[in-house]
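U., I forgot to send this yesterday:
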Amino acid sequence: VITSLLRLQSGEISDKSIRAHFEDAIQRVLSMALIHEKMYQSDDLVRIDLKGYIMELAEDLIASYSIEKPIDLKVESELDYLQPKSLVSTAILFNELISNSLKHGFSEMDSGVIRINIRTTQNNTKIECDYFDNGSWKPPAKEGSFGIQLISDLVDQLDGSFTKEISNGTTYKFVFDY
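Result:
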């Protein structure tokens, strides 16, 4: 219902940049809806196949952004599931990362690579996550863009931290509570 309302509203907008903001909001809502769908399909409402969820989310995003170029996606996870309180923040975080790669990182490339690796630390109290794309990024139009602020806020909600490195692509390294 929410996405239908947003789509109806966006149909009335002639400005492409404003319409793009609506499309981003729709994708964020759809990523949350996918979590709930997975929860209700699961025998245990709090145990969602994390790797499967991320793969399905990425495939949905690739289809919705109509990416006609091949995207080599690989997800590895030592975790079978996340705690329920972390699910929505983690889902929106991956939605933002993958969407940014598709929209901005691969725009001038013939193909793209996305690698996600999730693991726990030795004492199983923290989650470490590496996100890499081989994209050729342009600097943001303004410092402190909404996407970067959203990533920062989501990591704060997960009681975590992150670093970003740009070298032959972009790598984000996240650490947050398990």
